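User: Teach me something about this protein's shape.
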Amino acid sequence: MGVGIAGEAARAANPKLPPIQNAEDVEHYTTSNLIKLAYRIGLLSRAEWRKMTRVYDIRKDLEHEDSEYEAAFEDVVYTFATCIDAVLSKDPITLIEVHEVKQIIEASGPITLDTRLLTDFEHAPDQRQQEIVQVLVSTALSDSEADVVRENAYLVLQELRELIRNGVRLAVAKILLDRLGRTSLDELTVRVAHAAGLLPYLHKGQRKDFFAKQLAKLSDIGHHWKQHEAHGPALRLFEEFGGLTEVPDDIKPGIVKWMVRCYIGEPGGYGAGINRKVFYSNRAAPIIKELFLNSRSDIQKIVEDLQSDKDIRRSCEGAVCESLPVFELPVNPRQSHVGTLPHEWGGGAGRVARCSWSSRWRNCHAVPDTRRMPSS
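Assistant: First, the predicted structure itself:
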């Protein structure tokens, strides 16, 4: 399992276990201490550790059976069932090494993580998970690494994200905060932090300032459909920032409002689009749709409040938004449809047919993001 990991687990135990300097020290461990060590390392869950401890107590009673204790059939069944479920039924766990992950991210071609590696990482002790995540985060943020290596580190973090324990996230986030100091968050740091699940652990003030800058950028670009070329790159970043869920509550209403106005567009029917009822940003619409769908519960109250917003109502004047009924998510009736939305959105103009605000979203299809992370 690794003498270093075992030694660290022994020191971290409360109360401490006997020190481990080499493999022979483990061989001198009592059975009770071995069970505790397996739990501290991560080979046993807390429930399994308690059951195995109970089994060992039963075993000691059986070893010294006398008139005060007599083994019953259920004792034997419990002992065998627990040993099978907690130990024998599981595949052997190989301690994942940091150099294995380094070899993966240093590959020049497409990378894949096999099931065994993911399993080994999931069952790795906290210390080893932390070492691996630290290497990946540091590599993804390093200007001295090759672009392909940084991108691979980012992709591996995304694959491991759901397997990283909260304690490990917190420990790595503290290291990242020490590295940042009072420096403002930049786009790359936020994307990498989200990929590793660290973003919620960063200082709230830093996150607030960062997303306030993103709102200012959107405002500078403007929500008019003629700025559609700039809308795509600006909005796609929010997907890598963790979507609207990660935006602080005091900044979120402003960003949601901007997106609603951009999504609604403006009345068409003039110029080259004389036969088109609505002009809107075809680059922004599908991205906003997906962001809203993925953050439904977080923006529900905001979009309901926007029904009475004067800017939103002004955007709907002269269109088919007549009464702005209560909606589940903001949609554009002027871009509405009969039936299901097509998979591809045409450029520059909306649709003539109409439907309710909420029904459109029930017929939306997610747009997968196939991009890879830029190097900076």
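Now, about its shape. Strands lie at 266-267, 278-279. The first helix runs from residue 3 to 12. If you'd like, I can walk through any region in more detail.
User: That's plenty for now, thanks!
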